[in-house]
Sequence to fold (181 residues):
Amino acid sequence: APRAGQSIIMTKWAGMSGAWLLEQEYHEVFVNKYNYDIAAAIAGLDQYFSVTREAAAALAEEACFLYDLSESGVFGGLWEAAQAGHTGLWVDLKAIPIRQEVVELCDFVDVNPYKIPSMGALLIASEHGDRLVQTLKSQGIPAAVIGQFTQGNDRIVMNDDEVRYLEPPSGLELPKGGQAR
Fold:
């Protein structure tokens, strides 16, 4: 389980599989409003859904905890990881990797991209965050240190000077009127 003081690393990008499903559902209307290239970029995200390579790399670097974001999305995964380690956490929202296409689509359907599934992305707890990020990048796997596990129970996401406290996941965010599969 994660321990206070460890770095929180995230691989790839927030909201990948959630955006991929939303793109299928809203393809026509989205393509008409934006452009085909953005929709095509989102439709191509499924090539990133496997986490086998980064999991192997992380374990080789003695990462002590891996959490797959395919069910929970980023915010849910952060909460679950902190629960597992009985820790708090501090995360910089701007450090969480996200693709602009995903932001555009999520804005369009009014969902929070950090609360939709992100199959293909992992959260990793490690004593050696920067080193692990370099190792992953050297293998062609996008990764970033997004924060740290902390003492206590506060689970904080900072956005510039704005402090936000994570809440327990209450299920995944869906567009108004959308259905979960």
About this structure: The CA atoms of residues 43 and 109 lie 16 Å apart. Strands lie at 7-11, 65-68, 88-92, 122-126, 143-150, 155-159, 162-165. Confidence is low (pLDDT under 50) at residues 177-181. The helical segments are 16-33, 36-43, 52-60, 73-85, 100-109, 129-138.
